[in-house]
Amino acid sequence: MKRRLPSGLAGFAVSAVLAAVCASAFAYFSPEGVGTASAGVTKLTAPTITTVTPAVGGTVSLAWSAVTAPDIGVVTYYVTRDGGNPAGTCAAPAVPAAATSCKDSEVPVGNHTYTVTAVWRSWSATSGTSTAKITIGTATHFTIAASTGTPAVGASINLTITAKDENEATVTTYASSHSLIFSGAASSPGGTAPTVANSSGIATAFGKATALTFTTGVASVSSSKNGLLKIYRSGPAEIVATEGTLITPVPLGLEVVSGTQTKYNLAAASTTPVAGARNDLTITAVDTYGNTAAAYTGTHELVFSTAASSVGPNGNLPTVSDSSGIDVPFGTATAIEFEAGVAKTAGSANGEMTLYKSGSTAITAAEGSLKNTTALTVTATAATAASLVLTASTTAPVAAASFNLTTTAKDAYGNTATAYTGAKTLTFSGASASPAGTLPTVVNSGGTVVNFGAPTAINFTSGVASVTSSRNGLARLYLAGPANLTVSDGTITAAPLALTVAVGAAARLGLTAVESSAGTIGAVCLFTCPVTALGNSGTIGASVSVTDSAGNTVANVGSGHTVKITSTTGGTIVGTSLTIAETGAAVSTARFTYTAPVNGNFTHTITAATLAGTVYTSATATATK
Q1: Residue 313 and residue 492: Cα distance in Å, rounded?
Q2: Its pTM surpasses 0.70
Q3: What's the chain's Rg over C-alpha atoms?
Q4: For 449-475, what is the mean pLDDT?
Q5: Strands 528-532 and 619-624, how do they pair?
Q6: Which of 58, 126, 286, 437 fits a 20 to 30 Å CA distance from 565?
Q7: What are the chain's domains?
Q8: pLDDT above 90 for 470
Q9: What pLDDT was estimated at residue 52?
Q10: Comparing 488 with 56, which gets the higher pLDDT?
Q11: What angle do CA 265, 271, 276 make, to 5 degrees?
Q12: Strand partners, 235
């Protein structure tokens, strides 16, 4: 760049002056004093590039001669590479600097042309061109090599990491400590993350900055430091390293081999199987880190067991099918076939489990010391209701006294069928009417007393119907002696529940063993006894007993108990005073006989009442003609 003279002087005078000062490319006018027109002209000399030194890694070191300023002020310089801006410490045209050397960086491989321009005030002068050739450029990526391509899980692998330029040349200037981040391998099934030992020997998890020391472009393992890799998940891995924009375009491919089996993992197709249903097991032999131990193969003798008894209520033993399809009870060695560390069912063979007891159970499988350290928890559910079961709050209820009946729905294996729930219509049976004719009863879910033999609404909760607030199964039996209760919903039935009904407390007198010479004796003849069409001069004979409130004869009442027999005027009584036996059945030791009038119609009442001893409710008979 020049400062030019006014064009009007170009014809003659200026030409002479310029010739006198050798017509320099750059000029500067300097005033000499005040009021005179004398002036001196000098030039801004172009710098000379003295050093152009290319280096491995894409750097070029430049130096140039200093230029003297024509006058007051500092000369600054800028550099161009191939006509454009340089990098590194070299000044660009927009911001020239006073330095006379610099280092250009990030220079691509190939030949490059440099110039240096001196700048003073508004003047500038540019050097001639100099050329530099970069043969090994800046690092653009990494390559990774390993001491083995098939490491075992948890084994040490020596990595060699090399910084490369765009032409795959090793960038020997890539040196000292660099923070790389590794990826491409997953944590083990047990959660152990892959690591690379940094330059201090500290195992650093993948995904975290790992300090490695590079020497002439290469980081290699030394004393188990600076690149020692460990992977804990078996299978393929694709290892890459990055540092900022530097990547590993071709991952290091490894095939990690599983370790020796240390335990089993046990899984089931269903963790809530139905009792009696077959449930597929998958048994996997795994190494220390939870990888499938692929070398574990062939037939192995496993013993299955549970933490608590899993025998079904009806005695059914849990089983697992062996490799031949035979169901083998828990606790017995069971042949199971493994392939590449895994045993799976084949049809009904090789691991089909059947449980018969409902509820939660913890299942283990073992072959010697090899077993599943974490038990498989399975909660079997009851099958469909197949029967009803009756239980009672007492097996010796007292006649006419209430007691609780509980009805439980059971599946075929004796488990409570919890799905049998809500309102059900049941029919109770197995007990007879008392001597006085009172039928056995059950209170339904609504509180209504229902006779045995009639449909009875009973409410079930999770397979069980129990008495609540004197409803839903409160029973009363009236006939003393054995009873075999049962119940049915019309489809499923309970096995008989054996009870022995005890005689209640002595409370009443009853007429027993009643006979008549003619007419008809009522079907129920105890506390009251109708005899119709007796006829004139007909007779009625009977004994008198002491009974409970239901009419069951009591026993062993002791001495001093006598009964007086009376009748309506017109009839006659033989045996008006009868003695009750002291021991055994409380029945009079003699009978009375009533004789009807010899003629005419009649309605006579015969009364048995306490004469001596404990007063009991009287009994009556009615004779008519």
Answers
A1: 18
A2: yes
A3: 58
A4: 98
A5: parallel
A6: 437
A7: 7-42 (no CATH), 49-134 (2.60.40.10), 141-256 (2.60.40.1930), 278-380 (2.60.40), 387-501 (2.60.40.10), 508-624 (2.60.40.10)
A8: yes
A9: 97
A10: 488
A11: 115
A12: 256
